[in-house]
């Protein structure tokens, strides 16, 4: 507000004042050229006027620079506080829930992808605060320079913390989705094995050749189905091994499920 008012004052003063000074100079030159009896006094007053006008213009310029510097500093403080507030609000928006099943975990994963895209919009504001702070610290010393550094540091630390927490949550959701996918694969294979066992148990002992042929055909069909499931078993085992190798947060439960599946396979 003060800066705008002084800018208007400076513009009006420079325009109107220059016109008046030019008018007085022309009058003085005319009087001197016509041989006025007070030529020396007129010339002296003319020089004094021009010198005073030059001093005033320099004072206006100095004041303008001071107000511009003050405006820039206060704008930096405002931008730094505003950016810090936005970063902190984004921190508060990070949920703790990882999902109770595969569907909710995948939904949360999609939401977090959108969240990460959203916070990247803040990166330009953070960088602007950092760039402005670096430039302003060269123009100031002492307490003001320290205050500028503290404002920039607060923003940078909050931003770094936000990125770190966002990255941790992204990994948590990836691990959670992997966990539910693994458990789902194990569940499907165990249910399939239970169904195979029921088919085998339901078969009666053959009493003649035709019945024996039927049993053999059934067993061949079951064997073919089991062979067709080999890739699924291998993929499930590989995924469990990979989760354990990565130190998955649910490694203990993954190991228990893997052991249970192995026991069931051994019994069959």
UniProtKB/TrEMBL annotation:
Q: Which residues form a coiled coil?
A: 105-146
Q: Which gene encodes it?
A: LOC113431440
- InterPro entries with a match to the protein in the record: Spectrin/alpha-actinin (IPR018159), Spectrin_repeat (IPR002017)
One Gene Ontology term of the molecular function aspect: actin binding
As given in the record, the signal peptide range reads none
Organism from which the protein derives: Notechis scutatus (mainland tiger snake)
Keywords, comma-separated and alphabetical:
Actin-binding, Coiled coil, Repeat
Return any one Pfam family short name: Spectrin
Q: What is this protein called?
A: Spectrin beta chain, non-erythrocytic 2-like
